[in-house]
Amino acid sequence: MAVDDKRRSFPGIPATVWWELRKRFQRSMPAQVTPSYLQTVLTIQEGHARNLIPMLKSIALISDDERPTPLANEWRTDEGYRDACTRILAAVYPTELRDAVPPDETNRSAAKRWFMRETGVGEVAASRMASFYTLLSQGDPAVESGQRPKASVDSSQPATRVRQKGRPATSSATRKASAHAVAPIRNADSDPSPLGPSVHIDVQIHIPSDASGDQIDAIFASMAKHLYRNQ
Questions:
Q1: Nearest Cα to 37, choosing from 16, 56, 59?
Q2: Ramachandran assignment for 39, one of left (phi > 0), alpha (psi -120 to 50 degrees), beta (any other)
Q3: pLDDT at 215
Q4: 229 burial class (0-12, 13-18, 19+ CB within 10 angstroms)?
Q5: Which of 17, 51, 120, 188 has its CA 20 to 30 A from that of 27?
Q6: Which long-range contacts link 148-153 to residues 24+ away (Cβ below 8 Å)?
Q7: Is the pLDDT of residue 106 over 80?
Q8: How far apart are CA 126 and CA 108, in angstroms?
């Protein structure tokens, strides 16, 4: 099928299916990917399984005779996953889409509008197509549910250094860490009622790995000020 066909259908494989099937391929490469196989390993209905077969064929993970391809063998490994996704993007999606919504700058809303306009499908189907295009564009096996990399600092917001009179400059990450450590704690040794109950409180501080020396100093300076201010 030509890529400029206005009514061309694009795959809309759900992320849950994508990752679960990849796990199955990692455990053991099947001899043939039939609707029955998909029903069993994915726990889905027969109709859904039959609909997945042409989508898997369209992205060349299985051949016309429903056998896993060399691309599928590459796709199931962490080392080959990104290259496999790149090859699928280049083979399945037209240059027009990849230029308008670059894989490295995926805008799901823009992709959804493109699929609706160019294929004539409704919003639900277009959303599925856009979501799968976004998934391929990420090209990272770490985005699988439960394996997302932990971010110590919100990368969407640039760190802003704020200098107050008489205080060292701190970033937003430093202020967040300090905020968890500034709760005043009463010193049990200075309690005027020696017969009263004593309270023991542990304070945990999580410092970003990219924090500077000034930021770390500011954190502990804040602790000294608020934890021991009554001494």
A1: 56
A2: alpha
A3: 67
A4: exposed
A5: 51
A6: 152/206, 152/208, 152/209, 152/210, 153/208, 153/210
A7: no
A8: 10
CA distances (Å), origin 60, targets 30, 31, 199: 15, 15, 64
Give the single-character DSSP code of 104: G
- Burial of 226 per CB tally in 10 Å (0-12, 13-18, 19+): middle
Residue 177: predicted pLDDT: 45
Residues 112 and 15: their CA atoms lie apart, in Å, by 16
User: What is the rounded end-to-end Cα distance, in angstroms, of the chain?
Assistant: 79
SS3 call for 170: strand
- Domain residue ranges in the chain: 15-143, 151-231
pLDDT at 202: 62
Instruction: Give the CA count within 13 Å in the CB-facing half-sphere of 205.
Output: 19
Residues 98, 118: Cα–Cα separation, whole Å: 14
